Amino acid sequence: MIAFVFPGQGSQKVGMGTDLAAASAAARAVFEEVDDALGMKLSAIMRDGPEDQLTLTENAQPAIMANAIATLRVLENEFGVKLTETGSCVAGHSLGEYSALCGVGAFDLATTARLLKLRGSAMQEAVPVGEGGMAALLGADVEKAAALAAAASEQDVCEVANDNDPTQVVISGHKSAIDRAIAMAKDHGIKRGIALPVSAPFHCSLMQPAADRMAQALAETPPGALALPVYANVTAAKVSDPEEERALLVEQVTGRVRWRESVIAMRADGVERFVELGGKVLGPMIGRIDKEAATDSLITMEDLEGFAKTL
After folding, report:
1. Fold designation for 132-198
2. What residues contact 99, with CB distance under 8 A and at least 6 apart?
3. Does domain 2-126+206-310 have CATH number 3.50.50.60?
4. With contact defined as beta carbons under 8 Å apart, do 65 and 12 qualify?
5. Residues labelled as active-site residues
6. CATH 3.30.70.250, the chain: domain bounds
7. How much is the pTM?
8. Which residues contact 120 (CB under 8 A, 6 or more apart)?
9. How many CA atoms does the CB half-sphere of 253 hold within 13 Å?
10. What number is the average pLDDT over the span 20-26?
């Protein structure tokens, strides 16, 4: 069994998708449709930067999705590998869950782009710049991270945001609490805490205003039928019902990304091979979660061609 997985924020970089667009009309069509849906030249920012514009959350989220879906369209159109025929399920890391839903037809491309643009701006606006922060805890499991977050909070918000793999957990909350957590990390048996260069404290309770905005948006444009089940971030469980998934997408804004548990659940359900579309972030994480799992990270035409030949 194969799972197709979609990367999240932090995987963006200037030049993303440029070679695919040069090589494939299918990729160019994706970037053009996203530009049209957003009424802006996102593809130009992806291709040429500047980097600070691409890194803006409201641009990074649709850009990462567009790159992943362009990669998928090339795989389907140029190499004849259909996600819904080859895969058994999908999953995505944070915003990647929207990319996954686009891949299985629950949202069309234009709707996905608009939802992610809104999600990015809503998350950015939920907390004034400078008040929130996030930190990666290296050499921490989720129990150690939760204990550290609780100890550092002192009336502030400090919560586990991402359980990525057995060696990396991310915490999120008020900057003051995150700074305390970084200073206290070694006392909690954690190798080190590193402040992340993010513009907002994602996946914690401070994001409630953004969750409210997404609830409204998803009520107006709910997901449709899923051609394959998705493993939802906040439950690490398989979902096939669009209405259930809509509620989980709202919860996801403030909830923990349970990526490690999602991979374990997919493995338990028989997934042997994970195929990452448009990035090389999740593949290495999956390898740390389960050394027996086969992983492919597909970014270039060569990657796609090589993968297609293995099927």
Report:
1. Alpha-Beta Plaits (3.30.70)
2. 6, 64, 65, 68, 69, 92, 112, 277, 278
3. no
4. no
5. 94, 203
6. 132-198
7. 0.96
8. 56, 57, 58, 59, 60, 61, 62, 95
9. 26
10. 96
